Structures are given as structure tokens and as C-alpha cells.
Amino acid sequence: MTEARLDAAVTLPGEDISRVALTAEAVELLRKLWGQHGPLMFHQSGGCCDGSSPMCYPAGEFITAEADVLLGLFDIADGVQPQPLEFWMSREQFNYWSHTHLTVDVVQGRGSGFSVESPEGKRFLIRSKLMDWPV
Predict the structure, then answer these.
(1) What pLDDT does 3 receive?
(2) Are 70 and 86 in contact (CB under 8 A)?
């Protein structure tokens, strides 16, 4: 049985396969958080400890630049009004993870205090698998 997931729209030039997805549980939590915080975004820095987890911020709160790569764009809407959510990764980290597909999932437990899901007693995490196409 295949787990339900939401694939991001492809954002990298020359590619036609999504590099990042959200589990149904992640989408459910993100919709709740959107209701509390408004538009959201993810950034995956690749630091140590909690910095290795995807961090969810109110959109625009984490400033991205040339040092970051937009890996995907989701629409987490459950109705008519679009709810766009960008997934960014530091370019340096992308160099290491360029051969993997990432799925954002949710587990019980507190993550970083900087990520908006922290007060919910849950945290986002990345599940990765090697991509089966040449990059």
C-alpha cells in the first residue's frame, strides 16, 4: 500500500520530477498551523541537531538568498483559496542531498523552538530515499 502524500511542484530548471513531498499528517498539521500563523514556508539548513530538521516559519520570516535553493512549491489548500508553501534548502546542503527525494513527516516530540510546530508537541522530520533517476 502506498502512503498518501502531496508532491511539490517542480521548481528546479531542467527537472520534471518532484524532489520533495509532504505526508498526509504533515499536510494536516500545516493547515492547522496556517490557521494560527498565516502563510508558511520550510527551510532545511542541514546544521547539527535540530538544525538538521526542516524548520517551518511564517512565510518571509526566514530570509532566503543566493545561498538557498527552492526545492519545491506546495499548495496545502483544502478548498478554493490557495495556500502556497515553499520548501527551501541551503545550497551547501543541497550539494550533499542532491540525489535524494525528501518527504516531510510529523512525529510526536518537541523539536526546535524556532519552528512553529514546536508548541504542538510535534516536530517535522525528513525521510529521505535515493532518487532513481540521474541528477
Answers:
(1) 64
(2) yes
Query: In the prediction, which pLDDT does 131 show?
Result: 87
Contact between residue 34 and residue 76 where contact means Cβ atoms under 8 Å apart: yes
DSSP H helices, 16-112, are: 24-37, 91-97
**Residue 34 in grid coordinates:** 496556517
- Residues in the chain with pLDDT < 50? 1-2, 50-51
CA dihedral 5, 12, 98, 102 (to 10 degrees): -10
CB burial class (10 A; 0-12, 13-18, 19+) of residue 129? exposed
- Residue 97 amino acid letter: W
Where would I find the beta strands (DSSP E) of the chain?
Answer: 5-7, 9-10, 20-23, 40-44, 55-58, 68-75, 84-90, 100-108, 122-130
* Rounded Cα–Cα distance for residues 10 and 12 (Å): 6
